[in-house]
Write a structure and sequence with these properties.
mainly alpha; 0% strand; globular
Length: 212
């Protein structure tokens, strides 16, 4: 049932990426964030209630709340026009928690795919913090990262789970490569994103010197 929530998270993140790149209207996307955010709170509450209350079960189900609360916060912010700084600081908190999940996947579960996935989510939440709280002009880059992650960390893994082949050795090896290639693309895109900013700053500095 938790994979159903991840499946819906893929849809939300896909729409949010279009909103960030200016291809979708914020309020309409905000409504969908609210819908899925509510579902992402109901699902973990149900799973916790019917679980054996083992600490690792609670650990796994609690992670779903991170997505649900983020979507609710994004939806309310988009619909009401609230200042995004609060959302950004919340995303920073979630990014720190995601780092803990990343380290746990490596140290305790020895699961490279889960570790890289959580690391990618931590990076995404960090970008939301930089955009909303520090007001860095990175929305287009953030949209690109969100678009790719909506497919490679949420939508397609959920579909593969529904098909019963997600945790097979072959799929794990393939998906490890997919995630690594995605990270390489993020790094290359970040370099390309920063380069125009640096050139723009150099032109501005040159203009100021000519004025002097």
């Amino acid at each position: 049932m938790s994979f159903v929530g991840l499946f819906l998270s893929g849809a939300v993140l896909f729409l949010n990426s279009l909103m960030l790149t200016g291809k979708a209207e914020a309020k309409s996307v905000g409504v969908f964030n609210l819908f899925v955010g509510v579902i992402q709170l109901i699902i973990p509450f149900y799973l916790i209630m019917v679980s054996g209350q083992h600490h690792w079960e609670l650990y796994n189900y609690a992670s779903i709340f991170l997505f649900g609360l983020t979507y609710l916060y994004v939806g309310v912010t988009a619909l009401t026009g609230l200042d995004g700084r609060g959302l950004g600081w919340f995303c920073l908190w979630v990014a720190v928690i995601a780092v803990v999940y990343t380290l746990t996947a490596v140290i305790h579960f020895h699961d490279a795919v889960s570790a890289i996935t959580w690391g990618m989510w931590a990076f995404l939440w960090l970008l939301f913090f930089l955009s909303n709280s520090l007001k860095m002009k990175i929305d287009h880059y953030l949209g690109q990262v969100a678009f790719i992650q909506s497919w490679v960390t949420l939508t397609i893994p959920s579909l593969l789970y529904f098909l019963g082949i997600w945790n097979t050795p072959v799929v794990n090896q393939i998906w490890l490569i997919v995630l690594i290639v995605s990270i390489v693309y993020f790094c290359i895109s970040l370099f390309k994103f920063r380069l125009p900013i640096q050139k723009s700053n150099e032109r501005l500095e040159g203009t100021d010197l000519r004025r002097i």
